[in-house]
Amino acid sequence: MEILTDTALATLKQSKGKVALCFSGAHCPHCHTYVPVFRHAAEMRSDWQFFLVDTADAPALCDAFGVRAIPLTVLLRDGKECARRAGTLSPGALAQLLAQSE
After folding, report:
1. Please, which residues have CB within 8 angstroms of residue 26's CB and are 6 or more apart in sequence?
2. Is the pLDDT of residue 8 over 90?
3. Model-wide pTM > 0.85
4. H or E stretch including 20?
């Protein structure tokens, strides 16, 4: 799993396939709970590309995706947003979100 910065915006918009983004921050206790769930999903779902976005390191990326609260999960298909969920997701809720977005 890669950590994205602002330079990745153009690449994301042109990407093909399924991409899962997790917007989080080092200062956020809920993010500390959720990031391991997101990482585990990345290990289990090779059909998706998973990326972490630290909000402090990627303000333009956060603006482009309208991030207002973290943690935030955003799913893309072929460069277009197909789902988003704010807050901490359980492993089952994240799996369901991925399945609904296929």
Report:
1. 54, 56
2. no
3. yes
4. strand 18-24
